């Protein structure tokens, strides 16, 4: 970083290279299918060495699901940043609805070609399941830290399973709506309504859980 807080030239070049590789990979995955596209073909399309691709993306799946860090850590961060007097449930509900309004790709806004590519790949669907589990585990750790319970207490894990479970269901609904050819605006309206109902189901048990004092 420079003294002004802006990324330096080296950091910008690395970010640009990463984005270029990711963009070329996505284009090839959509055109040919994830399973059929090789890392060597991606490197050739991005005009970089194969080793450069693997340096930025150690797993081929990360080339397609390249927002995995934001995905797995997002719920935990939202809870950690909740306002005084706000529960974990309220913070997650508010952030999810905000993400719907901005058509955030992290919650599933991807466009039909990309959604179809993911749905058609056993490797990517398995990787998504793994990312959902990592997200739940990260949320459970944060809830345990935030509530100060003894090690081994099941409460944060049980709460995380319910809170992350709602996000998993809504992610799947959004993918299904996208695969049906619904526009982002139409899908957003539908999933926002589903989110209101889904989060309301958790209110009796988690509405007062992990309220920031």
UniProtKB/TrEMBL annotation:
Residues 38-57 bind DNA. Residues 15-75 form the HTH tetR-type domain. Signal peptide: none annotated. InterPro entries: Homeodomain-like_sf, HTH-type_TetR-like_transc_reg, HTH_TetR. Transmembrane segments: none annotated. The keyword Transcription applies. It comes from the Bacteria. The keyword Magnesium does not apply. GO terms for molecular function: DNA-binding transcription factor activity; transcription cis-regulatory region binding. Keywords: DNA-binding, Transcription, Transcription regulation. PANTHER family: HTH-TYPE TRANSCRIPTIONAL REGULATOR BETI, HTH-TYPE TRANSCRIPTIONAL REGULATOR RUTR. This is TetR family transcriptional regulator. The lineage of its organism: Bacteria, Bacillati, Actinomycetota, Actinomycetes, Kitasatosporales.
């Amino acid at each position: 970083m420079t003294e002004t807080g802006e990324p330096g030239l080296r950091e910008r070049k690395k970010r640009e290279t990463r984005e270029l590789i990711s963009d070329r990979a996505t284009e090839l995955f959509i055109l040919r299918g994830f399973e059929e596209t090789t890392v060597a073909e991606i490197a050739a399309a991005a005009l970089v060495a194969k080793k450069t691709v693997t340096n930025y993306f150690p797993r081929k799946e990360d080339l397609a699901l390249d927002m995995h860090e934001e995905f797995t850590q997002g719920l935990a961060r939202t809870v950690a940043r909740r306002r005084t007097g706000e529960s974990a449930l309220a913070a997650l509900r508010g952030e999810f609805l905000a993400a719907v309004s901005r058509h955030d790709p992290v919650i599933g806004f991807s466009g039909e070609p990309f959604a179809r590519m993911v749905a058609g790949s056993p490797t990517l669907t398995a990787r998504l399941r793994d990312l959902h589990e990592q997200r739940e585990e990260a949320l459970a750790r944060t809830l345990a830290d935030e509530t100060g319970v003894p090690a081994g207490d099941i409460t944060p894990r049980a709460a995380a399973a319910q809170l992350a479970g709602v996000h998993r269901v809504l992610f799947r609904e959004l993918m299904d709506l996208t695969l049906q050819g619904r526009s982002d605006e139409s899908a957003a309206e539908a999933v926002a309504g589903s989110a209101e109902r889904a989060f309301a189901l958790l209110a009796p048990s988690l509405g007062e859980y992990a309220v920031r004092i």
